[in-house]
Amino acid sequence: MSTLALETQGLGIRFGAFQAVAEVNLQLQVGARQALIGPNGAGKTTLINLLTGVYKPTAGSIRMNGQDITVHAADRRARNGLARTFQINQLFPSLTPLLSVVLAIHEREGQGATWWRPYQRSTACFDEAHALLKRLRLDALAQVPVAELAYGKQRLLEIALALAARPRILLLDEPAAGVPEDESGELFDVIGELPSDISVLFIEHDMKLVFRFAQRISVLVAGRILTEGAPRDIAHDPRVREVYLGSTHVGIHPETAHG
Ligand SMILES: Nc1ncnc2c1ncn2[C@@H]1O[C@H](COP(=O)(O)OP(=O)(O)OP(=O)(O)O)[C@@H](O)[C@H]1O
Description:
Radius of gyration: 19 Å
Keywords: ATP-binding, Cell membrane, Membrane, Nucleotide-binding, Transport
Distance between the termini: 23 Å
Pfam family, one: ABC_tran
CATH topology of the largest domain: Rossmann fold
Number of domains: 2
Number of strands: 11
InterPro entries: AAA+_ATPase, ABC_AA/LPS_Transport, ABC_transporter-like_ATP-bd, BCA_ABC_TP_C, P-loop_NTPase
Organism: Hylemonella gracilis ATCC 19624
CATH architecture of the largest domain: 3-Layer(aba) Sandwich
GO cellular component, one term: plasma membrane
Strand content: 15-25%
Bound molecules: adenosine-5'-triphosphate
Structural class: alpha/beta
Strand order of the largest sheet: 7-8-9-4-10-11
């Protein structure tokens, strides 16, 4: 039996009387490209916050690579290979992509507090930063201040920063949010090209992107998993169509869905 990258059992959280997430049994296979979809307010970001340790669950458990991490703090989960990006840009606008990634690598290496010291012993770090930027198709922009980058490139840089931690699991909270349509395809192309041993769970509202890139889809509605499966099954599920009925920005496209 293969170990799952992430697995939750009966996971839930209430904020006062409000049950934001309830009885979630989520499984992320090693190497997965899995989408978490659901209407606004369904609890998707809250679920990511539970997985990363930002929130403590009020019910259930979380396992990462077979180990129970339910009570582990966020930084411990990060050190053990869990990385995330946020819906909102977290970048320093005046830094270059190269320096941003170098700082993230130093952070991983535990040198975050002394990043300003001379870099003469950091050739490997710069080499790694360049390689990472190349993988994210940002190498030509390595020295351009972040503020001058197109928004899609900024979102790619955020993924680069998450990857600098060398995660085994990557959680992407709406990586294409705010990105013009002509750039979001490339962004997901790059996500699709990430090494196959990195397990990816992504939240995405654009169904065209979801059905193009997800191998598996979990549908969250009112804090609960409504259904989960291969894109083709999700696309034809009348309950999913019903959830999205009347929503103008969402279109289910079975013809583009993975089998
Ligand atoms: N810290 C909190 N305290 C109280 N309520 C919260 C808190 N965090 C989230 N919620 C509530 O939980 C519900 C789910 O929110 P969440 O942001 O997880 O939804 P979502 O599916 O990510 O939505 P969207 O697609 O719009 O980003 C919302 O009703 C939200 O107001």
